[in-house]
What does this fold into?
Amino acid sequence: MWQLDTGTIITLFTIMFAVGGIVLGSVVPALMEGKAVQKALEGMTRQPDSANDLRTTLLISMALLESTAIYSLLVVLILIFGNPLLDRFFG
Amino acid sequence: MEAIAPQVVFYLFGLPITDTVVSTWVMMVMLIIIALIIRKYAPHIGEFIIEMINSIVSSVMPEDVRVIQFLPFLGTLALFLVLGIFSASSHSWCPPLPTSTQPLPCHCWSFFAVHYFGIREKGLWGYIKDTASPIFVFPLEVISQLSRTLSLTIRLFGNVLSTDLVVAIIFSLIPFIVPLPLAALGMLTGVLQAYIFTVLASLYIASAIEIANVEEERRQMKQELKKS
It folds into this structure.
């Protein structure tokens, strides 16, 4: 059996959870943004008069939806580049 | 992580001046010089920009509000964000926006501006009373205001930083022509981000004013009921 020290284990788990986190955190908001775009396009084709209002609302809600992906990106960046656990054990 | 943290360049009267502050000063000087040049030589371009910002802001404001009173703040915010994001995605000098401290003041200003416009519209006591119209909403309102500022800050920081990182990684792999389309895409999304943050700031201002309007209408209806 491998003899892994604490730093290796922490690094391994950090990388695993960072990759999992960025996959989940980017795929789910992308799916939901696609849903929002789909509904807005349906509304635009059904009522072309309200296309401008729909576009403004769509952009704002896309920005709000995207923010969760950006939060997960920042958390992953902190985990990879400035891991606080590694500093605690080996600082 | 060292690239994200601002670094102290020099000391002014004992205060540490970071590179973020210096590049913000450069951007301020650039904005002023561009504005002077446009005013002197091509005033129709300035008219076009003001019309554009005016149409953006008035698309989310309620219709009976004079939009022109918010334009000095919101237009400055929009132009500053556009210039900052351009400087971040063109890598021309040390860009202020992807460092961890610069996006906060922008949104602190929009936080204060929301309350300033709300108080100017309604008066101090009236604004507080409207914000806390059922009294148990007041702590929730305070928390939502603060967390909104924090979330806007993190969002702007993450947006600019993610584009920046992607361009940097591609640049470290193939430092020739290939990063150019990505940088152009970064500029496009940057303009979109500036648009979205301007719209969000004007939405928050609109919500702060609209509460006042609703309360006023309710009061007028009550007075009319009393008269009849």
Q: What stands out?
A: The interface with chain B takes residues 52-53, 56, 59-60, 63, 66-67, 70-71, 73-74, 77, 81-82 of chain A (CB under 8 Å). DSSP finds three helices and no strands in chain A.
